[in-house]
Amino acid sequence: MSKVAIIGYGNVGYHLAKRISSKRHEVTIFSRTQSEDFILSIDQLNPEAFDFIILSVPDGDVKSVSDSIATSEAVMLHTSGANPISDLSKHLKHGVMYPLQTFSRTKDIDFTAFPVFVEGSDEGEKDIFTFVRSFSNDVRLLTSANRSKLHLAAVFACNFSNHMFHLSEKLLADLDMTFKDIQPLVEETVRKAMELDPSASQTGPAMREDEETINSHLEMLKDEQLKNIYRLITESIQNSK
Amino acid sequence: MSKVAIIGYGNVGYHLAKRISSKRHEVTIFSRTQSEDFILSIDQLNPEAFDFIILSVPDGDVKSVSDSIATSEAVMLHTSGANPISDLSKHLKHGVMYPLQTFSRTKDIDFTAFPVFVEGSDEGEKDIFTFVRSFSNDVRLLTSANRSKLHLAAVFACNFSNHMFHLSEKLLADLDMTFKDIQPLVEETVRKAMELDPSASQTGPAMREDEETINSHLEMLKDEQLKNIYRLITESIQNSK
């Protein structure tokens, strides 16, 4: 049983607090906004009272929040994919636990179903590994440099694919259709990509070099930015063959 | 019970043949390559012997194959999202049935789980509707012009999102990781997009206007085309807010 402070109560903080406390750790939540009664203000944080302090604040605030906390025996952690471990180097024991998942307040998350990537300072790594193991069964070591690369890959697979969904949603609105209308198609696309690998499951006019359809699609797109996206991705699909 | 000729035995022809014959229609398969014993050569097609002739050939061949077939009482159909109904206008009764799904030879397809969009010539529409109803329970009328728009939306949602997966797969290879390693993240992204709509579920550095992470990602990308894709999609996400 560890005493854990979670700073920040956004989507990640919320789900971490729920999961970690369910594993019998003692969790206290701190926040700058202190939106609910059981959340303490970050001014009330006494680092000496904790074994682990987890920063689940926006990436841009990780270093400044870490620097604002007095040094102690506690292990200082952040959960960001993009920030280097060195953001926390003020603290002797420090490290990263990056859950490779996307979190929403309203959706339950199965913590046994995705990997958590960890990294620690010499003094902190063993404690971090043991701690993360207590609530995840897929814990993997990864350096900051490689974690940035993984985060970049995740941006393509998730944020950028979601934007393709969003652009599709806009085009469907013209037809009085919603994204739900193409749910079977999207889900089958993902199933295929998982079974065959995305490289092997690519289909569509770009892949078929179907210039006639490509040109008629470009004509339909009135927005210049959308045209550019269509052109560039089509070209990239053809270069990837 | 109808007599159905299917011309072309690619992924779509294969699954159509399976589904339509399971609904007690009499299906004969014709192909130019005639790769298996039960497949007849297209030269052997006698249009008079069929109620429906379905072209599941590449989009670019729809018109020429249709034009090469003698006129008859049979209803001529194609299954393409991109081709207009007029490609088949040589034949009195003609039309389109566009299944909004992606087909792979090796994966079973649940025909009750996606819509089929139909369109017919004055003389053919009623027959087509009744026929498609016999093997699909979600049949919707759609004009050629709107079907092209739907196909364009599907290209963004499926072909382009799959390419984002492919680019991610390439970046993961650098880390000795496969696309399977980020399966929980991709699946949760799609679940969120379906529950909340893609517009509401957009996350990531572009959405957060996190310039530091965006710049460090651009530095990591050595390939100019990949850099351009990253820049353009990031910009488009920010313009869509």
What's the arrangement of secondary structure elements?
The structure is a homodimer of 241-residue chains.
Chain A: E1 3-7, H1 11-22, E2 26-31, E3 40-41, E4 52-55, H2 62-68, E5 75-78, E6 94-99, E7 116-120, H3 125-133, E8 139-141, H4 144-173, H5 183-196, H6 211-220, H7 224-239
Parallel strand pairs in A: 1-2, 1-4, 2-3, 4-5, 5-6, 7-8
Antiparallel strand pairs in A: 6-7
InterPro entries (chains A, B): 6-PGluconate_DH-like_C_sf, D-isomer_DH_CS1, DUF2520, NAD(P)-bd_dom_sf, P5C_Rdtase_cat_N, TM1727-like_C_sf
Domain DUF2520 (chains A, B): 115-236
Domain Pyrroline-5-carboxylate reductase catalytic N-terminal (chains A, B): 3-69
Question: Can you describe this structure?
Answer:
Two copies of one chain form a homodimer. Chain A is an alpha/beta fold. Chain A folds into two domains: 3-142, NAD(P)-binding Rossmann-like Domain (Rossmann fold, 3-Layer(aba) Sandwich), CATH 3.40.50.720; 147-239, Orthogonal Bundle (N-(1-d-carboxylethyl)-l-norvaline Dehydrogenase, domain 2). Helices cover 41% and strands 15% of the residues of chain A. The first copy, chain A, is built from seven helices and eight strands; from the N terminus they run βαβββαβββαβαααα. In chain A, strands 3-2-1-4-5-6-7-8 form an eight-stranded mixed beta sheet, with helices on both faces. The relative contact order of chain A is 0.08. The interface between A and B is large, with 89 and 89 residues.
